[in-house]
Specification:
This protein has 274 residues and is an alpha+beta fold. The protein is 47% helix and 8% strand. The chain has ten helices and four strands.
DNA sequence: AACTTCTCCAACCGCAGGGTT
DNA sequence: TAACCCTGCGGTTGGAGAAGT
């Protein structure tokens, strides 16, 4: 594969020598040697100004490229593997608050990069929207996310779907139910908080669960889709920026019971603080 | 087996904003 | 204070592998 390119357009480029440097810059996939050089340099000197870092490390890459490679791939704390239900829930929730603020969302998912979250959104979430034949930014789709997808994720988490890893802890913050230790979703307001990052194992079963969930979501959402009576006119759900409480109580009463799709006996009020 | 289509994700691009000279 | 440089962000692209025909 040809990796060395000239810059396609170097508007207002300066000297012939810098043009020559531009011509020598590598683009495209990183090689193991380049990765090693970058890791080695950063482990010895730390991160710094990326352009000079790229030069001093002997990499024929832009500082931008080095930064991206380090942050998205080489950093030791980068988590790889499938997005867990907990992480999906957080992404959906945070996206409903902040929109495409990927880096801001990523700050709340330790080890996950903005790029990864952005890719997740584009591949998974937009796929759902496509299957439902609606725009990902439409109110209809947002309602499906809020009233179907997120409760389903909570249900899965509640059912023990998070046993693949222990990155989240659940605890009552409103005196409801308690349950003592972590890992229990119960009645009342539930605090969903990150406690650490841990490598994901058992990828196979996660994929199967995700596929099942996707099928389930699409079928259930299309079977009871767009019924205005199910959606509260003031169901904005998401509150202020400090603390978001999604009240699924009303939804459960008016939707799940009313359509024979009851998913739980619990009244789920879910919030998380950061 | 060969070809096409789809999906995923790493990497690129342009732009905005902040810092430095 | 204008010009330049660097960083970070969000949008987009293109290649590799998987899935379908």
């Amino acid at each position: 594969m040809e990796l060395v390119h000239g810059k396609p357009c170097s508007s207002g480029s300066a000297t012939p020598s810098s043009d020559q440097e531009d011509m020598d810059l590598r683009r495209g996939p990183w090689t193991m040697e380049e990765d090693f050089m970058l890791i080695n340099y950063i482990s010895n000197h730390g991160e710094g100004r990326w352009n000079s870092l790229a030069r001093h490390a002997g990499l024929k890459r832009t500082g931008k490229s080095c930064r991206l490679r380090w942050l998205n791939y080489l950093r030791p704390d980068v988590r790889r593997g499938n997005i867990t239900p907990e992480e999906q829930l957080l992404i959906l929730e945070l996206h409903s608050r902040w929109g495409n603020r990927w880096s801001k969302i990523a700050q709340h998912l330790p080890g996950r990069t903005d790029n990864e979250i952005k890719n997740y959104w584009r591949t998974r979430v937009q796929k759902h929207a496509k299957q439902l034949q609606c725009d990902v930014n439409s109110k209809q789709f947002k309602d499906v996310v809020k009233y179907i997808w997120m409760p389903r994720l909570l249900e899965r988490i509640h059912a023990g779907g998070s046993s693949h890893n222990n990155i989240y802890q659940y605890s009552s913050i409103n005196g409801g139910g308690g349950g003592g230790g972590g890992g229990v979703l119960n009645q009342g307001n539930i605090n969903l908080s990150l406690i650490n990052g841990k490598e994901i194992e058992d990828k196979g079963s996660m994929v199967m669960e995700e596929e099942e969930e996707e099928k389930e979501m699409v079928s259930s959402s299309s079977s009871c889709l767009w019924s205005e009576s199910l959606l509260s006119p003031n169901s904005s759900g998401c509150g202020n920026d400090q603390s978001v409480l999604m009240d699924f109580h009303e939804v459960e009463e008016r939707w799940w019971d009313g359509t024979g799709h009851m998913i739980s006996d619990n009244l789920w009020n879910v919030g998380h603080e950061f």
